[in-house]
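Encode chain A's predicted structure.
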Amino acid sequence: MGMNIGPGTGSDEPDVMMDINTTPLIDVMLVLLVMLIITIPIQLHAVNLALPVGTPPTSLVKPEKVQIDIDAKSTVYWQGQAVDAAELDARMAAIAQAGVQPEVHVRPNKDARYEVFASVLATSKRKGLTKLAVIGSEQFAPQAASP
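Encoded structure for chain A:
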């Protein structure tokens, strides 16, 4: 008794195909892809913004500017006059109550103590001043070489 192992031993039967037929799988995947493309909402390339509605100002009056300087010895100056912390607090409270808040420009010296500068910023925030600018960064810019 013999056992037939492997092809080519004289049998005329075709070989059994052991691979999976992927054609129906591909057809189903393409149908799903088309359905997905159809059901995706159309993306608009617009950004919806809620812009404020109102009338623009009729006059072009620029607001007043208040200059606060901090020198190298950490002395605070209000419009060129030296002030202490209590007087600075009172003056900031007065301008915060004004109808149109002035612009407050703080110009610290690079050698001033940071705690004095931080105190001025904290006082302005506590009093409700919204138009605040720190100016004078040009003193920190690298110097160009002289010819």
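The radius of gyration is 39 Å.
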